[in-house]
Amino acid sequence: MASREHADDLLQETWLRIHRVRHTYRPGEPVLPWVYAIARRVRVDGYRRTRRIMMHETAMEVLPERPAQVESGNSLSAFDTLVATLPEGQREVVTMLKMGGLSLDEVARATSSTVGAVKQKAHRAYEKLRKLLEIRPEGGLREGIK
Amino acid sequence: MNCRDVDRVLIESEKSVTASLPAQAQGHLMSCERCRQLVRALEASDGAEAPSPALLLQLERSLAEDLQPVRPLAPQRYFLAAFAAIYVLIVAFGVYRMGAFAFSVMSPLQAIVTLGALAASAGVLTSSLVQQMVPGSRHRIPPHYVPAAVIISLMSVMAGIFQFQHEQNFWRQGWSCLRAGAPFGLLAALPFWLLLRRGAILAPRIAGAATGLLAGLVGTSALEIHCPILDAWHILIWHLGVALLGAVVGFAAGFAGEMAARNAQSAHH
Questions:
Q1: Which one of A9, A35, A65 terminates a domain?
Q2: With a CB-CB cutoff of 8 Å, which residues 11-40 of chain A face chain B?
Q3: Do residue A79 and residue A144 come from a single domain?
Q4: Within its chain, how far is the Cα of B4 from the centroid?
């Protein structure tokens, strides 16, 4: 996420889209996977839009874009730093399972996938994290991890 | 218990990692430094800034309450029935217009397997599309695999049930089949799209490919009942080509729709 403003824009866009497609919620079904699925799509669209704009701006050789500044109060936790190294799909699954507290079925619904595929992604992510934890120096990662 | 078993426990455990690990997994952790490091790292997610389960539950309840007054989308079975009705009606119309000459030259086994495979493929695609209309649906097959899986399965079945022969006028006859089947696909695409737009399509490219393929299968089905040529090459290239063409056009339409929506949003921002 480039900045707090960008995050706010995406949040606003998510609520707008939820409002627009509110008739697709089926009473009795879990709400969170429905919300997450919509939010996930907004994030993907937002990412693609930003990437396209940035590519266009570079190609046009207009004034060089200043790198987005991470706000001082927005420092990443050790867990975020660790999972940031994972591929997108695996990061998404691990974050939803371990930070969002969603069940396997809910993650599968939110990511338009199956429980088996979610398990496979999580397993690959854990395998990658193990390798990463072996390679990385002790102190670098242990900050914030007791 | 090995590292893979620990993974399984971690994946299926609740958010709190250490509290839910069984004794066997704890025993493995004592001897395996790699797993110990992983568990320690995952424990860090407990302290991360995330909404508590109680807050999430409260949020979920209040959202569900707010959504209750909204008139929801019709049940899935209505959409399944509508897709099936459109499919059957247009295939019937196609056969009525072109004639059913294939049945007189096909063996009963070939007829049953061919029509069964086409019906099963249409069923899988319809089910996937109806699930894609509602965000957060439970999928049996991930939607992005469905079009490819259907095409590969159909090609395998057709290649297995029909013989590869030398066909005279391969291109001319094939082209006339493609031209005869494609309009029925096009005819089916419109009502399919009208049905789809009642839901919320989050991945237009995937939904477009699946819809195009389903519409193309309408043309393929009509051709399979009409065309008396039983050469496997002819069926694979020209009959299934109608379905494949539909998938490509549907994907392109989904992509164009996605780009148009993104451009509109960029302009708005």
A1: A65
A2: 13, 20-27, 29-38, 40
A3: yes
A4: 31
